[in-house]
Amino acid sequence: MPKDRARKLCPKFIGPYKVxxxxxxxxxxxxxxxxxxxNQRIHPVFHVSLLRPFHESDNISFPDQTQPELYDFxxxxxxxxxxxxxxxxxxxxxxxxxxxxxxxxGDTTWEPTGNYADLSALD
Length: 123
Fold this sequence. Notes:
Layout: E1 19-23, E2 28-31, H1 35-39, E3 45-47, E4 83-91, E5 97-103, E6 108-112
Antiparallel strand pairs: 1-2, 2-3, 4-5, 5-6
């Protein structure tokens, strides 16, 4: 679960993923997960109660529906994002300064000073 994300706003299911192995004795299925999920240490074996069948959308009944998007479970710390706006700031009890940042992807988070100390825009 990504930090700073409300659980109710995260998708209940992600996918679809191909089943590459089944074990009827234990009702477990092994899925062909993308490398991004494997890097996040998500185990590829799931119990049948955690899986749902994928039904492709009908373009005649429901036009212009898009394929389900892959959900990112957070990227490594080396990845950079664009800031739309700095909305506010606050001083914590320990004297640290935090800024409320509106990200280009729509998220709003409180970021401590150490996260952006190397930015050339602040020089």
